[in-house]
Amino acid sequence: MLSHNLGYPRVGSHRELKKASEQFWAGKIDREELQKVARKIRHQNWETQRNAGIDLIPSNDFSLYDHVLDTSLMAGAIPGRYHQLLDGKSNRELDLYYAMARGVQRDGVDIKAMEMTKWFDTNYHYLVPEFTINQKFSRYSDKIILEFEDALQKGILTKPVLVGPVTYLLSGKEKEAGFDRIDLLDNLLPVYISILKELASRGAEWVQLDEPALVLDLTEKDKLALQSAYTQIREALPKLKVLVTSYFGALEDNLGTAASLNIDALHIDLTRGAETLPQILADQAFFASTKKLSLGVVDGRNIWKNDLQKSLDFIKSAVEVLGENRVMIAPSSSLLHSPHDLELEKNEAVLTPEIKNWMAFAKQKLDEVATLKRLATTDWATDEAFIANQQAIETRRNSALIHKPAVKARAQSVKESDFERQNAFPVRQAIQIKKLQLPLFPSTTIGSFPQTDEVRQLRANLKKGTLTIEEYEARIREEIVSSLRWQEKLGIDVLVHGEFERNDMVEYFGESLSGFVFTQNGWVQSYGSRCVKPPVIFGDVERPEAMTVKWSAFAQANSEKLVKGMLTGPVTILQWSFVRDDQPRKDTAFQIGLAIRDEVVDLEKAGIKVIQIDEPAIREGLPLRKHAWNNYLKWAVDAFRLSAAGVADQTQIHTHMCYSEFNDIIDSIAAMDADVITIETSRSQMELLDAFANFNYPNEIGPGVYDIHSPRVPTVDEMIALLEKALKVIPARNLWVNPDCGLKTRKWPETEAALQNMIIAANILRESV
Ligand code: GLN
Ligand code: ZN
């Protein structure tokens, strides 16, 4: 039985790569210095895995920015606009690489970055390969060879990892019409074969080709492409051992394809697709082959300790059918999606020993894999590590820290009527028009105002203890008041308090709710040098006390105008956290929904008449398989409705979503039934509105009229043009005027100028109708 790992986090346990990359981009260190940091991380990762006792250790799982971009560079899939960077002599690969990743603007060169999108349903973003008709590929970067050699010199014979050719093609985009990118397979394969041949000639025994596309809805053509790819690779390399990995889901209808691939081992994800195991063990073609089955038993995407008993049961059932030799043990996916090392969490006030004992980060997951291999061939029931593990699992199952009968009972007794506002939207709208007295085309902003260094410093000083809570709150109140005066002067209709007290729209709520904990070093790569530190939802979620009422009520008391209350919705809080794995996500979403509901009701009681519940993450929670969409959308929409429906008809509920494709989920967006939705549309020139127009979306809507991602100040005319475009498809009385998103990352001068123009545009429009 072999143990192996699919990939290890690459930013370094103290985010060394982030720091070095940013210094390199700022011109503060040179490429040698950067490469030194990168090499050190790789060496440490390999050593950590060797010390843990992992049999097959990956290489080329490291990346300076993104492994899909690495693959594009390997295959010479370099879009035309970067070719001017190709003609240099030596040492240009890195410049080209970062130009593709981040764009370049220097010495008269101005080239945009490649597009970025989410890697499957993770929060990791990759750079989308660009393809053209009949595109030719040729080997360009030898990174994979260099890293393999580097490890070899350290005495480690690694298993090089590559994005598989089919997943690579499917992850890309056709940049011109008239072809299907999967048709490029035969052009692409020679590059893979050439690389694999060189690896084999340098001594590689195993290679890992990641084909998570195996858990997607594939066409017959895609399936044939998989067959063809691995048949061709086998023919070219009869002796190299090829492991193909699937992960992030079950194989379902792709099982037959996966089981019959001409390869040496197939990896399946048992944390997200356990049903695949009995199916593949019953598959005659798989059984009759000599292929190994790699069992992804340790969750690569969460922070919970593995239940060794459960994993050993999986292993046992596989060994019974296939024999020990044909079974491999691994994490479910690359550990890229886990934080580095739980042992770095030393602050017991933040993470208590009891909760910490339920968790495992990447480094601990390696130990779990090695332990499972050891236990699988012993009488594990009396093993010390096994007993300790089962004790931890057992305390988690019963801990009063986690399980709060009252919270569970409340979530279970939710009734249909709890999801419903008192009356349907037309009735509510009529009441709100009367009560709120807003003009046509009301203007508002999405919530946050610039978080200046000064404001950040306030929070930091409060944390350090150099500012008392009274001093801190007084300063925040000053910020709120001055932003209110400023909004009034501009003539905005629905004001906001500015969110100065919030570090992050999820963390802020997590810190006030029970059932959440935070880590100090639990960083996970989001893209390039950007890392996030998601909160951990470990237990039943409850709202011990009001979270935002103090600030919103203060703001409302200080203005004659309406001030909008500002909350983050249950789906977004869920989506941007590490979520407990001992109950369905839906149950956790409902618990959070109820907590937010209480806050909404309290805001209403405090005199707040307009309340926004942000849900930018609704779409990213969509399951990978289409057939699972309805179920998800139903509970996600219900969780939102639960949070919103506790108020009277006259209270106006807003929601906000960032840039998102709405077409295929528009009925669910409508089912959320927010009185007003604000969305990001300016970069798409209002195109995203079409989904709402085609659907005859009935409620009010604020399509963003300016892009907040750029410091550029849009002109009055541009915004009028966008609003006129919107008016073609949205009835005038339903149209709001607002920016695309919150203004947290902007500076004050451009914010003032842009909002001023926005208000002028709204006024001109009002006069014209
Ligand atoms: N209310 C939040 C803000 O203005 C919304 C942020 C978001 O949509 N991502 O910052
Ligand atoms: Zn947004």
From TrEMBL:
Pathway: Amino-acid biosynthesis; L-methionine biosynthesis via de novo pathway; L-methionine from L-homocysteine (MetE route): step 1/1. Zn(2+) binds at residues 656, 658, 680, 741. Its cofactor is Zn(2+). InterPro entries: Cbl-indep_Met_Synth_N, Cobalamin-indep_Met_synthase, Met_Synth_C/arc, UROD/MetE-like_sf. It catalyses: 5-methyltetrahydropteroyltri-L-glutamate + L-homocysteine = tetrahydropteroyltri-L-glutamate + L-methionine. L-homocysteine binds at residues 446-448, 499, 614. It is an enzyme of class 2 (transferase). 5-methyltetrahydropteroyltri-L-glutamate binds at residues 15-18, 118, 123, 530-531, 576, 620. One of its GO terms (molecular function) is 5-methyltetrahydropteroyltriglutamate-homocysteine S-methyltransferase activity. This is 5-methyltetrahydropteroyltriglutamate--homocysteine methyltransferase.
